[in-house]
Write a structure and sequence with these properties.
alpha/beta, Rossmann fold, 2 domains, 14 strands, ATP-binding, ABC transporter ATP-binding protein
């Protein structure tokens, strides 16, 4: 659905995006992450035709963006970071306006407005002015406007910033439903790692204009050298047992606090149950065991040295 080849954006001597290449398959939800200044939003702006690349190519649904921009716009829907609506108009009239930009009119336009109002669950508020809506409701209308042309490629740039939990959950479920039931390809950027983990099969992490890692969560974990954590409550912990535990294959680090030992383990190398059996052989009695898989936040931190929430306003 999307292929970027050596995509570059320069502003004078400053390179915002540095020869990145990327493929997004049809029907997948793909996450694009990056700390402040990473080049993420610049990349999204080039894909969505807002900015022209300095170099490189963008291909969407088999078409060249540089050669066929009008055709590409017909198959793409963009939800920008900022609310892009007419506040004095109703939800229905906003959707009708954006639908008309895609060439819809008459009964076809009215039908699509009704369909989108159902999707964003604002049919009862259809005649209410957008200026009277909460932040979450405005976000939902913003999403609705981008759905009027039934896009094949749907790009959402931080769509849940500053909204209530109920609207946030609705947006996440809407994205998942559009992908599963309509086969819509989605590119999703967010400052909330749990959203990306919930929605995306794969993700790319950008930093300083380059893609530093790309793949599934397991592939990102492997590229980052991230480890899972095994926490064991035990009886009989002593220095000799702890030293033996630290030598167990698959255990990279171990820290002791009272009768609890926390270990960094590589699940890719060994089965966790095998590690637990090796711990028992040291002579200690396991009273409880808890496994924490490395999450996307820890992988991101390891790769960039920054937490994503410390980098609000990423570009």
């Amino acid at each position: 659905m999307l292929e970027l080849t050596d995509l570059t954006k320069k502003y004078g001597d400053f390179t915002a995006v540095n020869h990145i290449s990327l493929r997004v398959e049809k029907g997948e939800i793909f996450g694009l992450l990056g700390p402040n200044g990473a080049g993420k939003s610049t990349t999204v702006s080039m894909i969505s035709t807002v900015l022209s690349p300095t170099d490189g190519t963008i291909c969407i649904n088999g078409m060249s963006l540089q050669k066929q921009p009008a055709a590409i716009k017909k198959v793409m829907g963009i939800v920008p970071q900022e609310i892009a609506l007419y506040q004095a108009l109703s939800a229905k009239d906003n959707l009708a306006f954006f639908g008309s930009l895609y060439g819809l009119s008459g009964k076809e336009l009215d039908k699509r407005v009704d369909e989108v109002l159902d999707i964003i669950e604002l049919k009862e508020q259809r005649n209410q002015r957008v200026s009277e809506f909460s932040g979450g409701m405005k976000r939902r209308v913003n999403i609705g406007a981008a759905l009027m042309n039934e896009p094949k490629l749907f790009i959402l740039d931080e769509p849940t910033v500053g909204i209530d939990p109920q609207s946030r959950r609705h947006i996440l479920e809407t994205v998942k439903t559009l992908n599963q039931e309509k086969g819509m390809t989605v590119i999703y950027t967010s400052h909330y790692m749990e959203e990306v983990e919930y929605l995306c099969e794969r993700a790319a992490i950008m930093d300083r204009g380059s893609i530093i890692a790309c793949g599934t969560k397991d592939e990102l974990k492997q590229s980052a050298g991230a480890s899972d954590t095994l926490i064991v409550n035990a009886e009989g912990l002593n220095d000799d047992a702890v030293q033996k535990i630290r030598r167990i294959p698959g255990v990279s680090e171990a820290a002791v606090s009272h009768q609890t030992i926390s270990m960094l383990v590589s699940a890719a190398e060994r089965n966790i149950l095998d590690i637990a059996d090796d711990i028992r052989r040291t002579g200690i009695t396991i009273k409880g065991i808890h496994f924490e898989e490395a999450n996307l936040e820890s992988i991101f931190l390891r790769l960039t040295g920054k937490t994503l929430r410390d980098s609000q306003g990423a570009s």
